[in-house]
Amino acid sequence: MKTIKHVILSLAIVPSLLQADPKERFEPEEIVETIAFADRLAGSKWIYHWRDRDYEFRFNENGSIGILDGWSNVKWVVAGKEDVILEGGAHKMLLHFNEQKNAFYTRDWDGTKSDGRLAR
Predict the structure, then answer these.
(1) Alpha-carbon 38 to chain mean position
(2) pLDDT per position as a tens digit, 51-92
(3) Is 74 left (phi over 0), alpha (psi -120 to 50) or beta?
(4) Whether 67 contacts 119, CB under 8 Å
(5) pLDDT of the residue at 18
(6) CA distance 112 to 50
(7) Angle of CA points 67, 96, 112, to nearest 5°
(8) In the chain, where are the structural domains located?
(9) What's the pTM value of the predicted model, to 2 decimals?
(10) Residue-averaged pLDDT of the chain
(11) By CB count within 10 A, which of 16, 40, 49, 55 is most buried?
């Protein structure tokens, strides 16, 4: 019964979100902050900590990931003023950044808790 309620709720909400004007769904300040966040990330180098090892990567300006060979086909997109989605084929990973935008936490493609920090 719980699942049916979620499906009905989703069917009621999703169409309204898809049809709504994005300017009505988001505050102008949030849009500006999101664009500034994307500009700040573009070209920056990061250290990704996964399974007790560090890996360097870069948010390329063209929306791809650089340096880390295992992520060579991964694209990135800013999904809010503190969130980035990495897309690797059919898989997605959400990076949630702190307020200072110098660190993030996530669950890796395999579900492992991971984190990252701005490279110095």
Answers:
(1) 10
(2) 999 999 999 999 999 999 999 999 999 998 899 999 998 999
(3) beta
(4) no
(5) 52
(6) 8
(7) 70
(8) 27-118
(9) 0.76
(10) 84
(11) 55
